[in-house]
């Protein structure tokens, strides 16, 4: 499958990508491996924005299911994404990659606030900008945060790293006959409720014509391969 060349992308990783074999939390060795993947992608002379979820630490829905106030729990989830962003910043800087973290919840002592023009300047200077705290509001997810930042930073595509190598018509971990799509339309994803990203994130990408590339972050070197147009992935975009 040939894919268009991208100059600036947003990479979304779920928090689970940082927890390794554990059931929750941050595994420094796994973060270091992820940082190498990100560096390899950056080295293809891309401008790179990064969004990391918080599900390895706390999800608002899980708190709400156990009786917590949903908004309060969501704020805790957003704080979790800041911890992940700092962990990734540390790992990237240990590899010599310059980064800045910008949080949608202001936290002056640890990172910058989200300022689009400043983020633009960081990218021009070759830094990776890690956007933390999602959209900064409860009742959203980091998928929506990723779509929002991809739109405002005018990214050519949103790359969603997952544990499977694309979007299937059924869960490939449960159904041996599941078939992977090469391409899909936004409408199909929304209509069939395919688990790509949550609906508000997909709709935001559709409205701003941002292709969503779903690929596996588990295989070493895969992100860089997919960026070159090799490797296995599903691309969600407008139908021709
Ligand atoms: N969250 C939120 N608003 C946002 C982004 C995140 O309230 O804009 C909260 C929400 O509770 C969510 C948690 O932060 O469950 C962690 O993010 P997410 O579940 O998207 O992480 P991922 O599944 O990607 O690891």
Give structural attributes.
9-stranded mixed sheet, 36% helix, 9 strands
Descriptive notes:
Helix 5 runs parallel beside helix 7. The protein has helices at 28-42, 60-65, 70-94, 116-124, 142-152, 186-191, 199-207, 222-227, and strands at 8-13, 47-52, 99-103, 112-113, 128-132, 157-162, 183-184, 212-216, 233-236. The model has no long low-confidence stretch (mean pLDDT 94). It is built from eight helices and nine strands. It has a nine-stranded mixed sheet, sandwiched between helices. Helices cover 36% and strands 17% of the residues. By secondary structure, the protein is α/β, with parallel strands linked by helices. The longest helix has 25 residues, at 70-94. It binds uridine-5'-diphosphate (UDP). Uridine-5'-diphosphate (UDP) binds at residues 14-16, 53-55, 59-61, 74, 77-78, 80-81, 134-135, 137-138, 140-145. Residues 14-16, 53-55, 59-61, 74, 77-78, 80-81, 134-135, 137-138, 140-145 line the site of uridine-5'-diphosphate.
């Amino acid at each position: 499958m040939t894919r268009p060349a991208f100059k600036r992308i947003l990479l979304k990783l779920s928090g689970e990508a940082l927890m390794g074999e554990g059931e929750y939390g941050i595994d420094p060795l796994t973060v270091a491996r992820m940082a190498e993947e990100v560096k390899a992608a950056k080295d293809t002379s891309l401008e790179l924005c990064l969004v990391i979820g918080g599900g390895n630490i706390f999800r608002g829905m899980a708190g709400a299911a156990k009786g917590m106030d949903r908004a309060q729990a969501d704020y805790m989830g957003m704080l979790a994404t800041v911890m992940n962003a700092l962990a990734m910043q540390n790992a990237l800087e240990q590899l010599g990659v310059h980064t800045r973290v910008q949080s949608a919840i202001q936290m002056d002592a640890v990172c910058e606030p989200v300022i689009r023009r400043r983020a633009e300047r960081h990218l021009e200077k070759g830094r990776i900008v890690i956007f933390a705290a999602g959209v900064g509001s409860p009742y959203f997810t980091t998928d929506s945060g990723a779509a929002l930042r991809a739109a405002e930073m005018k990214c050519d595509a949103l790359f969603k790293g997952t544990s499977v190598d694309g979007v299937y018509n059924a869960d490939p971990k449960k159904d041996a006959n599941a078939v992977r799509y090469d391409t899909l339309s936004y409408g199909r994803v929304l209509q069939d409720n395919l688990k790509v990203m949550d609906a508000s994130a997909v709709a935001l990408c559709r409205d701003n014509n941002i292709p969503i590339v779903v690929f596996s972050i588990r295989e070493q070197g895969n992100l860089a391969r997919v960026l070159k147009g090799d490797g296995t992935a599903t691309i969600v975009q407008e139908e021709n």
